[in-house]
Amino acid sequence: MSAKDLxxxxxxxxxxxxxxxxxxxxxxxxxxxxxxxxxxxNCLVMAIVIPPSLLILFLAACWIxxxxxxxxxxxxxxxxxxxxxxxxxxxxxISMFSDSYD
Length: 102
What we know:
This protein is mainly α. It has helices at 3-31, 40-77, 87-100. It has one domain (3-100). The longest helix is centred in the middle third of the chain and has 38 residues, at 40-77. The protein is flat, with a radius of gyration of 23 Å.
């Protein structure tokens, strides 16, 4: 077995684990809805759409936090040097100074 084959197997295992996690979350979300017996189609659509939507929102929030942290570190690294700040670094420095005096 080559490294390429092993890499392909690991990819398929990860896809399977992701699908299993999504299917389990969808099932648990569907079963725990209050009216899943009276309106199964609407509840099933909500159970399929809401968990990935929440995951996308969570990942977007994490991406924004990591981006802000990286911008702050970059701005702090440029203090005392002749490098200029871009607009995001300037706003982060203003935000840091504002937070320190509150």
